């Protein structure tokens, strides 16, 4: 029976799986991006993200726990040094999985798993998107003209609504006389 055994075993024994995830996590920390299968990447994400969260507080205890998972001094230095400087302010979600297609030999779904703040291409795309804002559904040249005409026309509309027109005023006077 396999009740309550919900994680992916990846076709390996427990010791092989633990060693594989440790090696993959070390590679991810040192190289910032690795290519692997989607199933391994999803398991690696669950393995690495708690380590990054633990590394936010630099203490001897946290370093020893991270070392028990990674078994690499270089990876520990990188994790508690450069990586935490970049992702230390994030509340979570330190890794990103990007699907890349299928492997030729066995048709396994391949992907790239990377640390979020290290992809320069996505960081460059994200910065200009924040600066530009659209005010209307028209093109950018029309948007500036629309904003200018709307600003000029708003007080005129408000002025018309505040003053009652002559036919309405005469109707109110007739109602009062009756």
Summarize this, please?
By secondary structure, the protein is mostly helical.
Structure explained in plain terms:
The chain is mainly alpha-helical and 178 residues long. The chain folds into 2 domains: 14-119, Ribosomal protein L17 (50s Ribosomal Protein L17, Chain: A, Alpha-Beta Complex), CATH 3.90.1030; 140-177. Helices cover 61% and strands 11% of the residues. It is built from 7 helices and 3 strands. It has helices spanning 14-31, 38-55, 60-70, 73-87, 120-131, 140-162, 166-177, and strands spanning 33-37, 95-102, 109-115. Strands 1-3-2 form a 3-stranded antiparallel beta sheet. A hairpin with a 6-residue loop joins strand 2 (95-102) and strand 3. Helix 1 (14-31) packs across helix 4. The chain is globular, with a radius of gyration of 30 Å. Residues 152-163 have low confidence and may be disordered.
